[in-house]
């Protein structure tokens, strides 16, 4: 996951110009799917960052998608984590890569205190 501040244009530019080139140059991270998290949804300045630019960022970086959330309001947080988990599980289920890190989700047993 790469997180960006929706209230600051420089945050979007940093993903495109700094973090994505770093990911592409790292042999271990090249094949890891990426989700873009737009933080501070409650402060989103649609004049500074337009939704069409977020769509273009996903396309240009080959990210799995983006989700927006706000830690202040709690809006979108569950959707973000659900999307991250589905993205990880989708890759795990479709590739036969035994060197890939495993994702495990544990469910609490009914009789465990």
Features:
single chain, 113 residues, alpha/beta, 3-stranded parallel β-sheet
Q: How does this model look, in words?
A:
This protein is α/β, with parallel strands linked by helices and 113 residues long. It is 40% helix and 12% strand. It contains three helices and three strands; from the N terminus they run βαβαβα. Strands 1-2-3 form a three-stranded parallel beta sheet, sandwiched between helices. The longest helix is centred in the C-terminal third of the chain and has 18 residues, at 77-94. The radius of gyration is 16 Å and the shape is globular. It starts with a strand and ends in a 19-residue tail after the last helix. Residues 102-109 have low confidence and may be disordered.
- Give start-end ranges of low-pLDDT stretches: 102-109
Summarize the helix and strand pattern as letters: EHEHEH
Helix and strand content put the structural class at: alpha/beta
Continuous helix count: 3
Largest sheet: 3 strands, parallel
Which percent range describes the beta-strand content? 5-15%
What is the radius of gyration?
16 Å
The helical percent reads: 25-40%
Given the C-alpha coordinates, what overall shape results? globular
Give the total of beta strands: 3
Distance between the termini: 33 Å
Rounded mean pLDDT is: 81
Trace the largest sheet across and list its strands.
1-2-3
């Amino acid at each position: 996951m790469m997180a960006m501040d929706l209230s600051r244009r420089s945050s979007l530019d940093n993903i495109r110009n700094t973090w994505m080139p770093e990911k592409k140059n790292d042999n271990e991270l090249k094949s890891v799917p990426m989700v873009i998290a737009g933080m501070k949804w409650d402060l989103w300045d649609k004049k500074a960052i337009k939704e069409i630019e977020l769509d273009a960022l996903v396309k240009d970086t080959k990210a799995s998608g983006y989700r927006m959330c706000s830690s202040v309001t709690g809006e979108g947080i569950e959707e973000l984590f659900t999307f991250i988990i589905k993205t990880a599980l989708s890759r795990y289920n479709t590739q036969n890569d035994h060197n890939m890190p495993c994702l495990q989700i544990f469910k609490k047993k009914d009789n465990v205190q």
